[in-house]
Amino acid sequence: MQIFITGYGVISSIGLNSVENFQSLKEMKTGIDNTSDPIFGNYKVGRINYSNEELSSKFNLKTFGSRTAILGMIAAKEAFEGHVLNSDIRTGLISGTSVGGMDLTEKVFAELIENGVVSNAFNHHASGMSSLEIAKELGLENTFINTISTACSSAANAIMQGARLIQNNVLDRVIVGGTDSLTQFTFSGFRSLMIFDEEWCKPFDANRNGLNLGEGAGYIVLESEKSLEISKKEPIAKLTGWNSSSDAYHQTASSPEGYGAVLSMEGALKMAKLAPNQIDYINAHGTSTPNNDLSESVAFKKVFIDNVPVFSSTKSYTGHTLAASGGIEAVFAINSILNGVVYPNLNFTTEIIETKLTPQLKFEEGHEIQNVLSNSFGFGGNNSTIIISSLK
User: Fold this and answer.
1) From 3.30.457.10, 3.30.70.3290, 2.40.420.20, 3.40.47.10, which CATH number describes the 240-389 domain?
2) CA 212 to CA 30: how far, in whole Å?
3) In terms of C-beta density within 10 A (0-12 exposed, 13-18 middle, 19 or more buried), how is residue 168 classed?
4) So what's the pLDDT on residue 313?
5) For residues 40 and 19, what is the distance between their CA atoms, to the nearest angstrom?
6) Among 2.170.130.20, 3.20.20.70, 3.40.50.300, 3.40.47.10, what is the CATH number of 3-231?
C-alpha cells in the first residue's frame, strides 16, 4: 500500500510557516541567537519571538492552550489547510511532544510560590493535553487522537504510527508530526547533562561542543489511495520507508559504533525497497553533541560505505526542537524534493577525525531529489528513520 503526503506545515525560529522556513534555509539564515530571557542566561536558543497571545491573535486560534499546543495548532493548521472533513474519510491526529504543557505548569508554580494562590487551576498538563487541544482547533475532537513521547524521536515515531494505521486499514488520513516549546524544565535538564554550546552549534564538526535548544512544530498529512479518491487531493510526495530500533546502550548516549542508527537506516531502506545509492540527501539528526555526531557519522559509513550521500543537519538553523524535530525536518525533506535543493550544514570547519566526513556546506538548487532519508534519535537508544520520496 502506498502512503501519500498531501499537506505540510511548520513553525520554528526561522519562520512562521513553510514558505518563511524555506526562505531562511535558502538564505542560510539561522534562527539561533542570544535571548534576554533570564531563564536561558548567555546560552543561544532558537526561539520564536512572539508571545502566546500574539501567536493566537496572528493565527486566529480558537482554542486555548499551552505554548506547545499553540505551536502545534499553527503548524497542523497549515498542513491541513485545503483538506475537508468527511465522514467517509477516517481521519486522525498523532502528535509527538516531550514537554507538553510544562510552560503553563511553570507559570502556575511561580504564582503559587510568590502568592500562595494561582489565578488559574489546572488538573494536569500532561503531554496528551496538547494533542487534544490541537485536535480541537482542527475540528477533530471525535476522531482518533494519540500522543507519542519518545524524546527527540517523537515526531518521527508519530509519522510511523500514522503510516501503520493507514496500512492496517484503521484510518484513511492522519495528521502526524510533533511540537515542543522552550521551557525552564527542558533547559535545566539539558544543562545538567553538560551538552550545551554557549556559541552557535557546529554539527559534525571536530570542534563541536554541544547543542542549541529550539522550539517549534512540524506536521504532514498522510493519506491512503482510498482517501485520495474521496478527497480529490493532489499528493505531493510519498512516505516510502520507515523503521525504528533500540541500541539499549545508555540512558542518554548513542552507541559509539552506531549500532542502533545502522539498524534504523537499513530497515527503512529495506521497507522502501531502495539501495543505499538511491538516497539523494540525508537530513541528519546531527545534534552537534560529541557523542551523537560521531555515532551517526560512523553509522553513515557502515550503511553507505564509501558513497555517503549529501547530508546536513538543519538543527544549525532551528536549534534542537526535541520532539518536534522529526516533524519539522520531514517538512524540510519534502521541500528538498519539491524544489530540487540540498541544505547546508552551518558553522562547519573541520572534519571529525574518526570518519572524515564533510557535510553539505552550501545551499544548492538544481538537484534531482528522488529520495530523502531523515534521522531522529531519542534518549535511551531510540532510533527512528523515515524516507520521503518523489512521486516520479
Assistant:
1) 3.40.47.10
2) 11
3) exposed
4) 98
5) 29
6) 3.40.47.10
Give yes or no for residue 217 having a pLDDT over 80: yes
CA–CA distance, 259 with 100 (Å, rounded to integer): 30
Residue 201 falls in the annotated catalytic set? no
* Among 83, 125, 201, 285, the one annotated catalytic: 285
pTM: 0.95
Structure confidence by residue, pLDDT tens digits, 245-280: 987 766 556 677 788 999 999 999 999 999 999 999
DSSP 8-state symbol, 33: E
Mean pLDDT of 221-244: 97
In this predicted structure, what is the pLDDT of residue 392?
83
> If you average pLDDT over every residue of the chain, what do you get?
92
Instruction: Determine the Cα–Cα distance for residues 115 and 110; give it in Å rounded to an integer.
Output: 8
Query: Considering 83, 125, 152, 201, which one is annotated as catalytic?
Result: 152
DSSP state of 163: H
Active site residue 152: yes
| pLDDT tens digits along 319-363 | 999 999 999 999 999 999 999 999 999 999 999 999 999 999 999
Q: Which of 83, 125, 201, 320 is catalytic?
A: 320
What is residue 121's predicted lDDT score, i.e. its pLDDT?
Answer: 59
